[in-house]
Amino acid sequence: MTDSLISCLSVDPDVAAAVERIGPCRLRGDDGQEPYDALLRAIAGQQLHGAAARRIFGRLCLLGPASSEDGPPPVPEALLAFPEDALRACGLSASKQAAMRGVAQARLEGLVPTRLEASRLEDEDLIQRLITLRGVGRWTVEMILMFTLGRPDVMPVDDFGVREGWRRIKRLDTAPRPKDLKTETLRFSPHRSALAWYCWRVAEEGKKTAPNTLTG
């Protein structure tokens, strides 16, 4: 952890106590994927648990250029050319197929940026650009900002785990409303991604289930 991050999170004694208890931030800020790949992975995993989501995305990646479950997924031109049966065999519903084809078309048209192109765009610009796609909401883009593009100042206020973690950190009776959480955490800028990571860890404390494979 950098001195800047430690100093920023230490401005609040409750947050500082959580940091001390949990230890150094292990946020994975750059998974090496292109935004196109990350969007397909996110769509594949919607409404599924981690293992099932990974299996379905792995089957899709077997259709990609490396023919490997480890990726990458098919390029846009190939994805658009696959028949419905081939994608259904991967475990993709009709709605997920339509969302993925929309992402592929948007990549060809330049709406979905490359990593280099994304580096020139502000967080909110990327969010507003990508939520126009079918099956892609704000939370999905925020996860890509945090875990694919390594953006350090993202606070996903609609995330249940983040809200629950903040409730526990501040010993509140109920989880804060998203707009209240946004206001309360502005003072932790530019390190709100790390703060969100600590909220997830606090929300998981005492649970017997394994940590979330994305946010862990």
Automatic annotation (TrEMBL):
<comment type="similarity">
    <text>Belongs to the alkylbase DNA glycosidase AlkA family.</text>
</comment>
<keyword id="KW-0234">DNA repair</keyword>
<dbReference type="Pfam" id="PF00730">
    <property type="entry name" value="HhH-GPD"/>
</dbReference>
<protein>
    <recommendedName>
        <fullName>DNA-3-methyladenine glycosylase II</fullName>
        <ecNumber>3.2.2.21</ecNumber>
    </recommendedName>
</protein>
<keyword id="KW-0227">DNA damage</keyword>
<dbReference type="InterPro" id="IPR051912">
    <property type="entry name" value="Alkylbase_DNA_Glycosylase/TA"/>
</dbReference>
<feature type="domain" description="HhH-GPD">
    <location>
        <begin position="44"/>
        <end position="204"/>
    </location>
</feature>
<dbReference type="InterPro" id="IPR003265">
    <property type="entry name" value="HhH-GPD_domain"/>
</dbReference>
<dbReference type="InterPro" id="IPR000035">
    <property type="entry name" value="Alkylbase_DNA_glycsylse_CS"/>
</dbReference>
<dbReference type="InterPro" id="IPR011257">
    <property type="entry name" value="DNA_glycosylase"/>
</dbReference>
